[in-house]
Amino acid sequence: MAAELKEAYPDVDIKMVPSSGGVFEVTADGRLVFSKKALKRHAEPGEIVRLLA
After folding, report:
1. How far apart are the C-alpha atoms of 16 and 27, rounded to whole Å?
2. Would you say 23 and 8 are in contact if contact means Cβ atoms under 8 Å apart?
3. Which residues touch 43 (CB under 8 Å, ≥6 apart)?
4. Which of 25, 37, 29, 32 lies closest to 1, judged by CA?
5. 3-class secondary structure per residue, 1-53
6. How many Cβ atoms sit within 10 Å of the Cβ of residue 28?
7. How many C-alpha atoms does 8 have within 13 Å on its Cβ side?
8. How far apart are CA 30 and CA 42, in angstroms?
9. Is the pTM of this model over 0.85?
10. 11 has pLDDT over 80
């Protein structure tokens, strides 16, 4: 996931923030882009990059 984002956005500072309880959320500019907790599934390959485009 991180490598996919860094490849798509090489000039952006991407941080992975550890959490607990299986929570995986992606935010951009304060906006929730993807939530594993809400959707009850993992992101598919390329899904996060598509959502950010």
Report:
1. 11
2. no
3. 1, 24, 26, 34, 36
4. 25
5. CHHHHHHHCCCCCCCCCCCCCCCCEEEECCEEEEEHHHHCCCCCCCHHHHHHC
6. 13
7. 15
8. 21
9. no
10. yes
